[in-house]
Amino acid sequence: MAANDSQGPPLRVGEVRFAYGKTRAVDGVSFEVAAGEIFGLLGPNGAGKTTTISMISGLLTPESGQVLIFGREASGASGAARARMGVVPQEVALYDELSAAENLRFWGQLYGLRGAALQDAVRKALGLVGLIDRQNEKVGKLSGGLKRRLNLAVGLVHGPALLLLDEPTVGIDPQARLHILEVVRAQAKAGCAVLYTSHYLEEAEQICDRLAIVDHGRVLASGTVAELRRLVGEGPVVQLRGEVDDDRLKALAGRCPGVGLLSSSDGTASFSARDAAACSGLVRELFQAGLKIEDLRIQEPNLQSLFLKLTGRELRD
Amino acid sequence: MRAILILTLKDLRRRLADPAGLLLNLAIPLVMAGVMYLAFGGHDKDKDAAPVLRILVLDLDQGPVARAITGSSSNPEAARRLDMKVVQDREEGLRRLREEEFAALLVLPQGFSKALLEGRQVELELLKNPAQSVMPIVAQQITEVLSLYLSIGSRVVGGDGERIRLLFEGEGWADAAGIAALVTSLSDRVINLRRLLLPPLIEVEKTSAGKEAGGFNLIAWLFPGMVMMGLLFTSVSQMGDLLRESQNGTLRRQLTAPLGAGQVVMAKVLSVALLGAIAFCLLVAAGRFGFGVHWGDPAPLAAAGALVVLAATGFAALLFSLVRTERQGDALGGILTMLMSLLGGTFFPIEALPGWLQDLSKLTLSRWGHGALRILANGEGWRAVSGHLAVLAGIALVSTTLGVAFLRRRHLRGAL
């Protein structure tokens, strides 16, 4: 790892913007990732996470703003910045016709590894993701979970100081997901700066030191998980489903001290309550109002409720 | 340069790990060549061999001329073309005609020899097999020719026919002076006839087709076109890998490594060219050992091979710089390959096309590619093929340069 020999932080993104034609995908996103830190970009599909990663990895050039990797421009022609970066794309970008070890050797060679150093790096990467025993199997014959692990290993084979992970656990079983999260934590612990995008709230809460919630190409909020939770309040969140209308719910929330309506649409609604007493008052009012409620849940404040508060919709929309 | 080599070797490893696609591209033109080779009689070592005429003869005459006809198949040369069987009666003849696939039944009537030698008119009866199409007509024509010859013979013999018939039946041999006079008379008539018939004003010269005779060699003409088709199919199919890599994300992932877009594109073009070279060698070997094509001097063949491979690679690069999806590329590549093959004269001589199409064919890669290979397969060398090689070099240079430039630009714009 080479996290401390730089002229700047592993990653600094400043006010970057990018549009696909008339569709603005990223609109002034800024954040910084320190060595040994796991920074999460959390947002629904289409929020601009992958476009942001593409600009960081040099695949896209920002229309404005700057991406600096250890103080160097990401899209610099020398490729020096990219040499210190490992990228794990959302899709499983591997060669099915080659074995796991052959894939790793190829990607390691592209980053300048050769000879004994290459062999060591391949062995180490296989060991990290638990694929030593399957190293000679063609990738096309591996399960989806094992391919995901190998996809991660390819991003790690050259020992990057900055790791970009774009939804690395999409579509895999819980066991494989757990394994990948462990590997990512271990990398961060070893000093690697990690940028992690996901639309899985629990996963992001579990693994990230700091987070930025993005939607429609903008950062809506950022900070540690604890800081973000505080934005939505210390009290519980009440979610309900039934035959409800916005006006009645707004009136109802106005009658309950310490209660705010977070969102209301398509027969579902969410309220934030200041404390347990406010929550009890809200529930009492809901039933007294004679609303037809099919489902009612009371939850501790979490990123989901924060996202609801910030965007008015569920993160998995 | 090292990165280009690594990327190229990766593609070669992938293809060799799963060579089915590459071999399928070669199988299409080889199968076509094989079918056409067989269809045009390439399988038959004796290309002059005609089908044997099977004919039944019912000899109701038993005279000398009839015996001469029925005995004609004992001649070794005639036996190669004629399978003649004598039947005892009409019923047997009709039955065997139906059951044993004979072309016709020739009936030599009673008194046939006597009438002929006496210069009287006589009729032959020919019953053709209605179940066959060509061979009964052949039998009819042979019978007509036979009738003509017999009529001429009868006229030449003139009034000596009866005398000759008796001699054939063993009578009159004691009159040695009479026989000598008869022979002398017949000899004079034949010599007089020679003045009219010989030398013939028209002669048909028959030569054997093939390289030994310097004539047309079908497979040497046909196979180079198949090589070009196989090469174009291979190049288009392999260049499609660029879009396959784009779809599965490996192309974008390569660009997150410290590489340039130009290196990635160059490596792909190089790997397609190398796979094309492998395909060319396999096709040339198949032509030599499977179809007996003689490719001539290896040096101009190697030069022609290198240039057709580069030109086909350039064509494929240009094609895939213009299409959006692999499916589009495959479809358009297949259509253009077939179109170039048709216009370029892969399946028939260019001279058979209208003038304007002949001019248009000069714009096709196939024409120059298989043109060069045909020249070499015809036993000619550098001097004869140099014009084609120059055109191929130009096509290769222009198409590869444009293809790489367009692909690189698409890649940089994120369109790959």
Shape of chain B: elongated
Biggest sheet: strand arrangement of chain B: 2-1-3-4
Shape call of chain A: elongated
In terms of quaternary structure, the protein is heterodimer
Q: Please identify the structural class of chain B as seen in this structure.
A: mainly alpha
- Strand-and-helix sequence of chain B, N→C? HHEHHEHEHEHHHHHHHHHHHH
Detailed description of the structure:
- The complex is a heterodimer of chains A (317) and B (416).
- Chain A has eleven helices and 14 strands.
- Chain A is α/β, with parallel strands linked by helices and 317 residues long.
- Helices cover 68% and strands 5% of the residues of chain B.
- In chain B, helix 14 (298-322) packs antiparallel against helix 17 (365-377).
- The longest helix of chain B is centred in the middle third of the chain and has 31 residues, at 261-291.
- Chain B starts with a helix and ends with a helix.
- The model of chain B is unreliable at 207-213 (pLDDT under 50).
- Classes of the chains: A alpha/beta (317), B mainly alpha (416).
Question: What descriptive keywords fit this protein?
Answer:
heterodimer, A: 317 residues, alpha/beta, six-stranded mixed sheet, four-stranded antiparallel sheet, 14 strands, 36% helix, 28% strand, elongated, disordered N terminus, B: 416 residues, mainly alpha, four-stranded mixed sheet, 18 helices
